[in-house]
């Protein structure tokens, strides 16, 4: 796992070099973004087929589609969504090299993360460090199809903020062509109605989350026989206690991070933002924690949380950046190591969930 620690050290160094460009907690320097984006594009595109639980299947599908004579034949190769198959087919017309295919997809996915952070974060460095600790980069790297759906959701964010429903719906429907779970993002358009910056808003949403968490497990168990795609997960590893324990730990870490950030002025951060972006980002903080809590009833919902993690990170990072200097530094010193330790523990104790380390490149694989 030396690479995991090396990546964190490089990101810390980049953040340290950016300290001189900060003004009242605002840091729009691109060094941290360039380091993180470049490192993960390289890491994702150069991986061997043994890195990542789903990589062997991604490679099999790409090789099969590369050998297909028509798009209709390509669609018969896999159960994957048509948009993903079409992208495989288009790239395979130019090259049959799987790592070049990974490079193209990595540029799209990690590029969207960089654009989102640079556009909405007050401090790029803090947002990048928290995103690394919250496993955003690893998740997008390993969940290739969903990473593309996440990218399209992030690109739909301006439509969400500007209240352009047609554009938002079209982008989300496009995202479902890469991962069908993106369909659940359609109701997210109404997230702007959540007052996550007030105690009453959190109380009301908390009651809904509690009700959903109690009932979801019962409902899904009773109707599992009609869930053609998700039913088998109820008796798979997703129903095991280890994964449920990891979900509980993830919920606790998110709550602690949100509470620490709140000490820097949660309501004030919203009041000081005339654009209204902070109110929406903080609604995502609530929604992220809520989905994680509801997923205790059905662990597959953890996959939905992957869409919400980056807005969560940018939201709490922005609140911390608006605090006075002692509080801001204290919050950053507490939250960044907490998130990093949380991810490090999961990688060390449950390596079979990720198949990420020891990392092997395609160059080592071909020796």
TrEMBL record:
The keyword Ligase does not apply. Keywords: Membrane, Signal, Transmembrane, Transmembrane helix. The chain crosses the membrane at residues 30-50, 100-122, 142-161, 168-190, 202-225, 246-268, 280-301. Coiled coil: none annotated. Residues 1-20 form the signal peptide. It comes from the Bacteria. This is EpsG family protein. It comes from Actinomyces ruminicola.
């Amino acid at each position: 796992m030396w690479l995991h620690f090396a990546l964190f050290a490089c990101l810390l160094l980049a953040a340290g070099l950016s300290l001189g460009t900060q003004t009242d907690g605002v840091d729009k320097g691109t060094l941290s973004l360039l380091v993180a984006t470049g490192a993960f594009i390289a890491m994702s595109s150069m991986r061997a087929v043994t890195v990542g639980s789903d990589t062997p299947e991604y490679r099999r599908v790409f090789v099969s589609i590369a050998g297909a004579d028509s798009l209709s034949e390509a669609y018969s190769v896999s159960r994957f969504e048509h948009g993903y198959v079409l992208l495989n087919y288009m790239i395979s017309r130019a090259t049959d090299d799987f790592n070049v295919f990974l490079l193209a997809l990595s540029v799209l996915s990690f590029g969207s993360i960089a654009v989102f952070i640079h556009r909405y974060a007050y401090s790029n460095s803090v947002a990048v460090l928290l995103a690394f600790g919250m496993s955003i980069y690893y998740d997008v790297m390993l969940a290739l199809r969903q990473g593309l759906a996440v990218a399209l959701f992030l690109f739909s964010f301006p439509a969400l903020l500007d209240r352009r429903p047609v554009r938002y719906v079209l982008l989300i429907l496009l995202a479902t062509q890469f991962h069908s779970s993106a369909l659940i993002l359609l109701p997210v358009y109404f997230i702007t109605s959540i007052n996550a910056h007030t105690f009453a808003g959190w109380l009301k949403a908390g009651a809904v989350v509690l009700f959903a968490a109690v009932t979801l497990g019962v409902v899904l168990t009773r109707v599992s026989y009609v869930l053609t795609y998700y039913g088998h997960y109820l008796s798979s590893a997703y129903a095991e206690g280890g994964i449920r324990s990891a979900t509980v730990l993830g919920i606790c870490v998110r709550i602690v991070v949100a509470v620490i950030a709140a000490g820097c002025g949660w309501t004030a951060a919203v009041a000081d933002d005339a654009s209204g972006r902070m109110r929406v980002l903080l609604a995502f903080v609530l929604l992220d924690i809520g989905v994680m809590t509801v997923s205790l009833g059905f662990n597959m919902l953890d996959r939905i949380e992957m869409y919400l993690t980056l807005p969560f990170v940018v939201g709490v990072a922005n609140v911390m950046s608006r605090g006075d200097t002692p509080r801001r530094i204290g919050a950053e010193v507490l939250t960044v190591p907490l998130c990093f330790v949380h991810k490090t523990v999961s990688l060390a104790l449950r390596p079979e969930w990720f198949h990420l380390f020891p990392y092997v490149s395609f160059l080592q694989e071909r020796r």
